Amino acid sequence: MLIAGNWKMNTDLEDARDLAAGIADAITDPDPVQVAICPPFVSLEAVGEELKGTPVQLGAQNMHFEEEGAYTGEVSASMLQSVGCRYAILGHSERRQYFGEDDELVSQKVRQALRSELVPIICVGESQEQRNDGRAGEVVGSQVEAALAGVEFNGADDLVIAYEPIWAIGTGETATPEQAQEMHALIREFLRERFGDTTGGSMDILYGGSMKPHNAEELLAEPDVDGGLVGGASLQAADFAAIVDRAGDQI
Ligand code: PGA
């Protein structure tokens, strides 16, 4: 079970420090839930300092697929490693939608993250239109398959999938637990086929899209929902900690 906070393009340096300290305070003993927060790049180091000696881990919201070189404005996996990141969110729908990231690019990033021993949190999810057309399963299935093309890795903890229906992100509209479970089961089946029953069966599949303290419990109770990728509610320490508590109740 993993609860990861995606701060997106929010918080300046001082806000980021305060929020990280607030979250670390509010989450004293998350065991056995894994907890991570993903602040903007410029605050990673400072947030990492705040998190030292706490169980909360650090993640980034994006990274480049090459190790280094002439890629103005980009950040590499080893740079993220050097400031203490364990996770990198890859292929978030906002990256796909506003920055033209496609499946091939996401897959390159996933392979680079794994080579650099970062745990990629690979985001997939359908639009409202695709769901209305009855194509949600097909879209998500092909995104997962493409992101994992050519991927080799050692164990179930090396990689995380986040199912985030685009229509639920930042909208206050959440997938019903049944809708979430249906898609998670489909992803689970793919992972079992791809990596074998044991590994595929125990990889974390997170739900994301307006997860809040009031709806986290029923979503996390579903058998194939192994945690959450939390946007808006991760900007409030108390709300984020409440979601971590709900996750703990499920174990
Ligand atoms: P939200 O964002 O919780 O604000 O809907 C989730 C995400 O985009 O990861």
Can you give a write-up of this model?
The protein is an alpha/beta fold. It is built from 11 helices and 8 strands. Strands 1-2-3-4-5-6-7-8 form an 8-stranded parallel barrel, surrounded by 7 helices. Helix 10 packs parallel to helix 11. The radius of gyration is 17 Å and the shape is globular. The structure holds 2-phosphoglycolic acid. 2-phosphoglycolic acid (PGA) binds next to strand 8.
Key attributes of the depicted protein:
alpha/beta; binds 2-phosphoglycolic acid; 11 helices; 8-stranded parallel beta barrel; 8 strands; 251 residues
Query: SSE string, helix = H, strand = E?
Result: EHEHEHEHHEHHEHHEHEH
The major β-sheet equals:
8 strands, parallel, barrel
- Overall structural class, as computed from helix and strand content, comes to alpha/beta
Report strand %: 15-25%
Q: What is the 3D form?
A: globular
Gyration radius (Cα, Å) is 17 Å
The helix fraction, in percent, is: 40-55%
The number of helices is 11
Which ranges are low-confidence, i.e. pLDDT below 50, for 5 or more consecutive residues? none
* DSSP E strands, number: 8
The first-to-last residue Cα distance is: 8 Å
* Strand line-up in the sheet with most strands: 1-2-3-4-5-6-7-8
Indicate the mean pLDDT.
96
Bound molecules: 2-phosphoglycolic acid
Oligomer: single chain
